[in-house]
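If you are new to this repository, start here. Below is one unmodified record pulled from the training split, so you can see the exact layout before writing a loader.
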Amino acid sequence: MIAGNNSWHWATLGLWLLVIAYWVVAGRDIKPDVRTQSEGRRRVGVSITLALFLLLYLPAFRIGALGWRIHSGNEAVQIIGLLVCLAGLSFATWARYTLGRNWSDLLTIKQDHVLLVTGPYAVVRHPIYSGFSLAAIGCMITLGEVRGVFVAGAVIYFAWERGIKEDEVMLQCFPGSYPSYAKRVRAMIPYLL
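And here is the target side for that same chain:
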């Protein structure tokens, strides 16, 4: 089994695969790009994501300090982790659905780009990144090993970094409305950050 004997951690992989399938299908109908990042950045992002998934789900990486336990593996704790993962992925998927044809896997300005400030975008400016960060924390809880802490930390770091870059792009695209939106709505954590 990929995740060892931890069926709750295995269930988080199933949730991620469902979300990825939705993303692929929904990504077929998006607006044309007006301005986008390079294809090289996409490859780097995909490579980092794949490396983090392998670290999280392959028992071969349960070596040395990476395999140290961070909690007892109590089933109730693992179920909480699964629910946290589900909440994060649900929030990110709601945001992806709300973006509709404006979505892109790169920082992109779309033809007839629209600034969305409703739904999950009324809660935080970067709900996909927030949701994926929360899901990674849930995976860390279900795994219960140091490598999960490393993966969750990396996901949060990259989400925060990308959110900063996205703010810069949105400010260029919407100089009249984005500053007031950014003042009203926090970047990643409602009311805090």
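Two things worth knowing about this chain: Strands lie at 33-36, 108-110. The CA atoms of residues 186 and 193 lie 6 Å apart.
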